[in-house]
Amino acid sequence: MIWYKCVQFYFHLPIIVRLLLSVSILMTMFGSLIHLIEPDHFPSVFDGIWWAIVTGSTVGYGDYVPLSTIGKIIAILLILAGGGFVTFYMATLSAGTIKFEQDLSEGKTSYRGTNHTIIIGWNERTKQLIEMIEAHNLDTEVVLIDHTLNKLSFKDHHIHYIKGEPTSDKTLQKANIEQAKFIIITSDPSLTEEQADRQTILSIIAARGNNASIHIISEILTEMQRKNAIRAGADVTVRSNNFMSSLFYQSLFQTDPQVTEIIAKTLEEQQFCSELVDEGLIDKDFYFCAQQFLADRKWLIGLFRENEMILHPDFALRMKKGDSLIYLQSLEHTRKQVE
Fold it and tell me: What class does CATH assign to 255-338?
């Protein structure tokens, strides 16, 4: 019964572990045997095991050599048996490494890390986002979920790829969504705007169902689906069409072609933030508040008052209780505050 359990346990081990265990047992057995037969030439069991490994791997240093006939017969058996085992082990190890790399690039390997960021959809927006994350050395691993890619080389893109539908629990679990910190859901460019938004909302529901605390950022194309995305569980909805329309509108009144680059660079390197007005700033004018914020490397640009956004208000405008101040600060400064 015990023997059967041992055999059952052995064959449940991964093949690499089984081969390593078999080679170790075989070399230990031959090393102990040669030590018992020729104790003068092999003073210790370790010397015997060393000889067995060198001989079985066909390296043959020659520092230990059996002299007796029985010892030479054991060496022949070791070369025949051990050489085959070691060669098979190395071939299996190499094949396993190649298969793991193939599975990784084809999106078949589950992710085991924690506090990572999941990005859904492979498109130009996600490519640039990943480049920004790498350029700013953000302390987060990126896991990409996409159903259109056949292969994504890990050497060229230092992200973990999972192939599958983002609405599938199995796919999300392979991405280890239970331990993820953020998930960014981008719109599918191959669908119409209405279809893309419906797909995004389904992905939000699936993500929220698998992790109640994950921070969900979703791209929504149509205004009528924005509220549905929030109802589904999105923490932040990004209206990409609104942003592009505003950018086009800005370009109408600018002759300098670098204006769009300035806006893009600002969004890349600066963080838009808001915070409730401090008790000490109530009844103070906007100019005074701006000076206080500048001392902390924050550029005050406006405020929220009674659900209304006021940008670049009059310097004489006084703060009221319940106001939220809007400001810009560098991403690096924001990261240091979070850390």
Answer: alpha beta
Nearest to 117 by CA among 78, 153, 80, 160: 160
pTM passes above 0.90: no
Distance CA 286, CA 269 (A): 25
State both tokens at 7. 């055999």
Residue 202, pLDDT score: 95
Paired with 237 in beta bridges are 218
Q: What is the pLDDT of residue 4?
A: 44
Amino acid occupying residue 45: V
Number of H helices, E strands in the chain: 12, 10
Backbone torsions φ then ψ of 329, nearest 5 degrees: -150, 155
Q: Which tokens sit at 52?
A: 């067995």
Model confidence over 290-339: pLDDT tens digits?
Answer: 999 998 889 999 999 988 999 999 999 999 999 999 999 887 655 555 44
Collapse the DSSP code of 12 into the 3-class scheme (helix H, G, I; strand E, B; otherwise coil) and give the result.
Answer: helix
Q: How many CA atoms lie within 13 A of 253 on its CB side?
A: 4
**What is the distance between the terminal CA atoms of the chain, rounded to a whole angstrom?**
56
The domain segmentation of the chain, as residue ranges, is: 2-105, 117-244, 255-338
What's the helix, strand, coil split of the chain in %, to 5?
Answer: 50, 15, 30
Q: Does domain 2-105 have CATH number 1.10.287.70?
A: yes
C-alpha–C-alpha distance, residues 210 and 216, integer Å? 12
> Cβ distance 167 to 206 under 8 Å?
yes
Q: Does the domain at residues 117-244 carry the CATH identifier 3.40.50.720?
A: yes
Residues 64 and 74: their CA atoms lie apart, in Å, by 14
H helix or E strand, kind and range, residue 219: strand 215-220
